[in-house]
Amino acid sequence: MITPITALIVDDHISVREGYRLLLTQFDINVIGEMDSGEQLLQNYAQLNPDIVIMDLSLKGMNGLDCTARLTQRYPDAKVIVLSMHDNTNFITRAIQNGAMAYVLKSDSSSVLVEAIKQVYYLSKRYLSNDVANTIAMETIQSSNDKLTVLSDREYAVFLLLIEGRSRNEIASTLSISPGTVSNNKAKIMQKLQANSLVDLIAISTEHNTVKQNQLDA
Hints:
Elements: E1 5-10, H1 14-25, E2 29-35, H2 38-48, E3 52-55, H3 64-74, E4 80-84, H4 89-97, E5 102-105, H5 110-123, E6 127-128, H6 130-142, H7 153-162, H8 168-175, H9 179-192, H10 198-207, H11 213-216
Parallel strand pairs: 1-2, 1-3, 3-4, 4-5, 5-6
Helix pairs in contact: 2-3, 3-4, 7-9, 8-9
């Protein structure tokens, strides 16, 4: 008898978690835990030790990108599949860079998610759904020079909050860093993006179709 794959679902909407738990059960995938925040996942991951983590990006508190990075840094063998409504190329790229093994859209069919789980668990292969792969391909064709890729993960997180008009202290509180670190990151962002003002940053954000931080917190 084949041992069922075990999974944790991280999503801050209980109805979404319940729906995917029922779906995965039909494919002999055992959901051993449901979390509504990245913080809760990090606290309980070692004890539950799942085969797969299914991660939403839009979480209250720590977003899914940061959580994926922290989880895979702490537990290098962790296998994360991002399941998100966001088809923005920057988020797809950063999710993979942060350690996610697969990226699937919530608009994809259930069979796509199941296939991603099997590819990641049995073959340890990275997996992008067709819609995600097409998004990346089209973005590559349309723009071979994405300015935002020069930013580090921390700088990108600060950038997202800056374009919302958040103050230095608000950004520091949200990212759990010091106001001085925020200022240093802002200076690096301005230099790397050759921007002189917040207006310039917003224009760059619009040009690259950036998803704002508050959309990740939704």
